[in-house]
Specification:
The complex is a heterodimer. Chain A is α/β, with parallel strands linked by helices. Chain A has 7 helices and 10 strands. By secondary structure, chain B is mostly helical. The chains are: A alpha/beta, B mainly alpha.
Chain lengths: 256, 281
Amino acid sequence: MNPADDSAAVVLRNLWMAFPGKQTAVHVLEDVNARIVRGEFVCIVGPSGCGKSTLLNIIGGFLRATAGQVLVEGSLVAGPDPRRIFVFQENGVFPWLNVSENIGFGLRRTASAEKERIVRHYTEMVGLTGFESAYPAELSGGMRQRVEIARALAANPDIIYMDEPFGALDFITRLKMRADLVRIWERERKTVLFVTHDIEEAVQLADRVLIMSRRPATIQEVIEIDLPRPRDLDSPGYLEKRDRIFASMGMSLGVG
Amino acid sequence: MIATPPPQTIGNERAADPIRPPALQRKRVDRLQFALPCGIGMLFLLAWDLSVRFSGSDLFPKPIDVARGIVELIQHGLLLKYIVASLFRVSWGFALATVLGVPFGLLLGWYTRASQAFNPLIQIFRPISPIAWIPVAILWFGVSDAAPIFLIFLASVFPITVSSMAAVRNMQPVYVRAAQNFGLTGWELFRQVIFRACLPQIITGLRIALGIAWLVVVAAEMIAVNSGLGYLIIDARNAGKRYDLVVAGMLMIGLIGLVLDFLVRKLENFDEVRWGYANRS
């Protein structure tokens, strides 16, 4: 973990996090260390309530860690930053703006012709052409999530943080969104840090999966997924990686 | 075999057109919807008419007397004059309350310290009926339009402030976090995100406050003015027990209140705020 190493997009060093509780503090993170390389797609998985979202919120600058350091692109994180865009679990698309206005939100300082071109490009990339003037309330959950992803991409950030972005979607839509995200990521090659509790999702998406333990959480294992994309969900390689994560999280696949 | 779907079929969950969820669909014209309230209205008029006839009252008017009273007011050119006078006072009082109450309420909602400081005082002033302020209004403003305007202002400024404050408190925090992520701060953050996110609830607050303002106009016009629907009611009673005109004034207040509410409801149909009401019918 050498901060001078310029291939690192995100470096976590000895992160501790505790929230004040009624009697004693609730320890959420305990000595989390990690290094995410530029252009990498990393998934963070762990049991519900283990502090995955807390960790991502700390990296995103929305929460301050109790102790330890977060270095993004070599500098300490002091707050949210337009160079790293967060895609929220609860969908942060603005309901008072239509699809185009939402996607162009991060381009306030861009000349209008250029802005129009970028918005059109990303609207098409997420498959929302024809819906430019629709308002979020008129869209399905999956489409709203596409708008938020397009809004993040249009701002041209170095890193995208995604906090269970597909958690509220139905199974089929989730499958489509994952495949779509892979397709987009292969074109854009942004650094992506993706939190999920869904092991299958992690294996379908990530270059590397960081497995977190129960609370107080630390990173208990890192698994490389060196499978070609798009991934065949029936291939032995896929199943082996999936089973390893299951095993690491202490779950048995056998029934009964 | 379950394989990742091929990329070209992905992202095509779009239908032919943007599909409006049922909550946003405009309702089909329903004849009963109009027929029912009209029928109930007719029944009410009939019951009113019959009860006056059977009681043998010579002071309380029948519906037809009220209708004649309204015609008489129109012929004397008074009806329009009084309506305009009342609307003028309500507009000024309500506009002042909006201009002060909305920004103040948003401020209190955003800064916890400000609401800690001001809220107790607001909660003490709020339950004081505007009618209790009448002597004070006369003392400060004398015989002028300013006194009723002041009373209407008082009646509407507290609901507007409190609902604007609540709007900020109930706002989804994710909007602010997303906006901060895109680098918005200060005035830009307020204008483009906080205000916009609160607008649906602000409008609802304005609608309630306008109802209250109109409710208070009668009491406000009982003092020291010589025009307006409230004045009409008091004057008709004092100068000759003209109860037909009293009831005519009451009826006009009711009808105009209905129109005002209808107009503010129209505001709730704009795309910029419609999302805030999507969950109610």
